[in-house]
Design goal:
With about 450 residues, this protein is an alpha/beta fold. Helix content is about 60%, strand content about 10%. The protein folds into 3 domains: about 1-80, Four Helix Bundle (Hemerythrin (Met), subunit A) (Up-down Bundle); about 95-290, P-loop containing nucleotide triphosphate hydrolases (Rossmann fold), CATH 3.40.50.300; about 295-425, Signal recognition particle, SRP54 subunit, M-domain (434 Repressor (Amino-terminal Domain)), CATH 1.10.260. Strands 3-2-4-1-5-6-7-8 form an 8-stranded mixed sheet, sandwiched between helices. The structure holds guanosine-5'-diphosphate and magnesium ion. Keywords: Cytoplasm, GTP-binding, Hydrolase, Nucleotide-binding, Ribonucleoprotein, RNA-binding, Signal recognition particle.
Length: about 450
Amino acid sequence: LSDRLESTWKKLRGQDKISESNIKDAVREVRRALLEADVSLQVVKDFVSAVETNAQGAAVIAGVRPDQQFIEIVHNELVRVMGGDNAPLASAATAPTVILMAGLQGTGKTTATAKLALHLRKENRSTLLVATDVYRPAAIDQLLTLGRQIDVPVFELGTDANPVEIARQGVAKAKADGINTVIIDTAGRLQIDESMMAELAQIKETVQPHEVLLVVDAMTGQEAASLTETFHSQIGITGAILTKMDGDTRGGAALSVRQISGQPIKFIGVGEKVEALQPFYPDRMASRILGMGDVLTLVEKAQEEVDLADAEKMQEKILSAKFDFTDFLKQTRMLKNMGSLGGIMKMLPGMGKISDEQLQQGEKQLKRAEAMIGSMTVAERKNPELLSGSPSRRRRVARGAGYAESDVSKLVSDFQKMRSLMQQMGQGRFPGMGGMPGM
Ligand code: GDP
Ligand code: MG
């Protein structure tokens, strides 16, 4: 997709206005690309017509480059269709909040049940998991194992009990035990079938959940549309979890699910591990669907703000013994030029698991470090050993920066540790990296 859009944007570049004819071109490309990203046909049609309208309306805006304007319109419309903002999980006024999981077999319901419990713990919400998949003995064991793994209780009545009854008793138990949220894992089938739907409907009727989450495998692509249609019309969903987003899918299913149900996607699953759950952010997904990944944005930003030669010199220094506090400060400022640390970390692949708190923590620490380095003499910056050997120097720096002497000690020792690690990398002595070419 990105290649196609790129060439279309190139065509648009250098013109004052978006004209009707070059919108047509671009629109055709977007349509084709979305279909390739596995968005369902109807959803593509609706989406494209909205973009077309917006683009033509925006053609009169002066002073904006047409290619940029077009990118923005496509992107904005994708974000809008997918709900704008992240939608949080329901939280009932009187506990327990009841969450019912629905979806076909193998989509990741049971895994997502455990993932949600772990997520809710971070919000200080206790959970009880309820195992109603009585059709396969292994299904109950799977939930029990996951529950043990994350230290969350699992309610089950074996494989002979009635799923509706298990759900009812599970919710009653959570109420009695003062548990905040019950998550009911259900049985899926490989295909939609009437008995599965009837059972789900009965469970829903009995426990009156606050949240019915459809678990959709992102790799299903086009089928996500009809699946959503069926579950939403027969059961009524309040949201969805898109699993297996760690695969190479563009995420077209996200657009389909949202457009067809009108309900938000609340989380995405990004791996088999229980920690691999992230809130769903429409803007990030829009970029992914468009193929202009956040990583590209990062590269562009970096190119704009950082002098490449400077960066290379810095890299050499980092890998040699010469790296000192002056360089550290300089590097911190380079990072800042590129935007907030949080913004940068989130754009890097594989960094998704870092929470907002952790990022804020990291930014805070950088600020503290900057303040302390600011209070050091030039000699101390060049030679941190001066500080590790002298409590009076440390006290002076601490006073100047408004921190404790122990903070300065920690900064210096952390810095020394980091530097020796980097030197080892530079000399190829880093564990496991020694044999790597170029290290
Ligand atoms: P269920 O039948 O709907 O309960 O599905 P399960 O929770 O048992 O998951 C089916 C398979 O998909 C298991 O092998 C899971 O480890 C795997 N799985 C679930 N979620 C994800 C995900 O987000 N990413 C990846 N790669 N695998 C997942
Ligand atoms: Mg299951």
